Amino acid sequence: xxxxxxxxxxxxxxxxxxxxxxxxxxxxxxxxxxxxxxxxxxxxxxxxxxxxxxxxxxxxxxxxxxxxxxxxxxxxxxxxxxxxxxxxxxxxxxxxxxxxxxxxxxxxxxxxxxxxxxxxxxxxxxxxxxxxxxxxxxxxxxxxxxxxxxxxxxxxxxxxxxxxxxxxxxxxxxxxxxxxxxxxxxxxxxxxxxxxxxxxxxxxxxxxxxxxxxxxxxxxxxxxxxxxxxxxxxxxxxxxxxxxxxxxxxxxxxxxxxxxxxxxxxxxxxxxxxxxxxxxxxxxxxxxxxxxxxxxxxxxxxxxxxxxxxxxxxxxxxxxxxxxxxxxxxxxxxxxxxxxxxxxxxxxxxxxxxxxxxxxxxxxxxxxxxxxxxxxxxxxxxxxxxxxxxxxxxxxxxxxxxxxxxxxxxxxxxx
Length: 415
Description:
By secondary structure, the chain is α/β, with parallel strands linked by helices. The chain folds into 2 domains: 3-249 and 404-409, Rossmann fold (3-Layer(aba) Sandwich), CATH 3.40.50; 261-376, Aspartate Aminotransferase, domain 1 (Alpha-Beta Complex), CATH 3.90.1150.140. It contains 11 helices and 13 strands. A hairpin with a 6-residue loop joins strand 4 and strand 5 (119-122). Helix 4 packs across helix 5 and helix 6 (261-270) crosses helix 8 (347-361). It is globular. It starts with a helix and ends in a 6-residue tail after the last helix. The model is unreliable at 1-26 (pLDDT under 50).
């Protein structure tokens, strides 16, 4: 990075801190030091380790993490914090899919980390927010989980719930930032309707928000007016245009069915379908790279979708039998999705065009009302039901998306 770029980056961070401090009850801290070389991104845990864990000096720490919380060299954050002489790691908290990211079940129990003997509190069990008892004796909650850049991926909900608990219990909150793997530039899709917040829609974001977890934490604090001491330990060497494969970091499946970068890029559009009576490939080798059902005609739908000439993507018919999850053991006819040019590919447009074609071809079979659970926008759902073209549908949420982009612009940390 040039001196001028570094200077602008520092200015951006200072302005961000000033803005958020002026809208919140407690100040934020964002400390950026040196910059990593191109293709050698340092995550928050790498920066923390390099700086001798000084940001957690003398603190009694609770760590919210899972299997993605590794350093650049592949060492777990649990081990690093446990071994740090100046940090007292008291408790671990795990999100959906558990501490090792392998559980695809509706309820996860508390456990113990076998390496350190530290208790692991599940935030996907009887509670999804740390309780006062869980936080007893903790000075600082640290959040370090890899997100994938989509509103309904629940790790950001876990972070938001934990931030609220920290504010209520006067516990400091530190985010060890990580890249948005599908880039930090693209912002698209309907914005969640006001009043429809849930665990699959924690905050009023569009489907694809284009932010890192650290930036989202700043937004949550500001817009929810949290009286919270918040510190972001930023990435070094990451640029907003970067996809995950430009970072030099190792891909670790953030959840059982998120197995590569292409699936993460497809997820904002294809993931919307999974609350309906369709399989999105769970129980196959390529989840989110295909979808189908026993009642679907894959050849017909592939032909219709290819006829739209959507940029950066192609469709082909296939048959598959899920080994688990929806339609387990049943032969499904469906569509395989291949990204041909990710710079042109539009995940939201592709997802909405698929929904429009499903509505047109299978108006009595496809369970469209269930589509709104993750879409979270009733006006857009009604437009799909009415068969409005995609160009008209984008006009419905254009103003809300522009308003979000304005809110977002005052929060961003990175160039």
